[in-house]
Amino acid sequence: MNGFKGEPLLLLYFLCRLFPWCLGTGLHSQQFSFSAGGGIQAEQSICSQITVGEDTVPGFHIIAQFHLAAETLRGSVKTVVGSTPMHVAYKLGPESNFKIQTRSAYPLGLPEEFAFLTVFRMNGSTITKNWNMWQMQDFNGNEQLAVRMNGETLSLELSYTTPDKRKQTAVFSFLPFLFDSHWHKILLVVKKGTVSLFVDCIMIDSQNLSPRGKENLDGFTLIGKLKDNPAIAVPFELQSMLIHCDTMRSHPEYCSDLAARGSVNLHNISNTPDL
Prior knowledge:
It comes from Synaphobranchus kaupii. Residues 53-247 form the Thrombospondin-like N-terminal domain. This protein is mostly beta strands. The protein has helices spanning 7-18, 62-65, 68-74, 102-105, 266-270, and strands at 30-34, 40-52, 55-61, 77-81, 88-92, 99-101, 114-122, 130-137, 143-150, 155-161, 167-172, 183-191, 194-199, 202-208, 220-226, 236-244. Mean pLDDT is 82; it is low at 1-6, 19-44 and 262-275.
């Protein structure tokens, strides 16, 4: 699959970074069925009710699943200033080993449509690595679902498995503005047949998806691991990470949790390849 290409979208990204107005655990709650017309209907309970800002929505707080706040008391995780002085983030080091049982985090699995949202920052060698920000494995350690940062190709990838167990990857290519030491917000909206990527509240691209198979819940879920060696953790800073089960409510109006940046790297624009 092809990611977004060419200069216009890259230029749009930097313009919108200058003008932020471009965009801005209980166990039971709500499951959704998806009609042919894309309507979402409450069907049965599979998602937790979580608090996001002043709203209560169906979803999962991934940071809470991995007990990062408790890990700071043990010293394995440090708290740092987040994307603004008003935000707190967690600094995960290379010695971190965040791996939990999938069934404990998602007792009834994920709905067919969901949105993955995170605010994070890479630093040092992590920028150039190929690593899984979030990954579901089956009980044999095989990847079932993952959000991946590929610093080798400057791309973001959504990896998933079809009902007949074929591995598929949606690749959003050439995102140089994402691979730096700034705070970024990523929103991946997974719907029936499509996946859309927003970076810092700016729409980047949409791609077609093959049907996604049900994930095996007897495996493990990980954060911050190398793609080719999930035993090795990568250092990065994490302010928030969650899954929305209601994709219609996952879009923020603006990026108030990201500090405004007063300049852009024109080098990235002038050297955009003709794809």
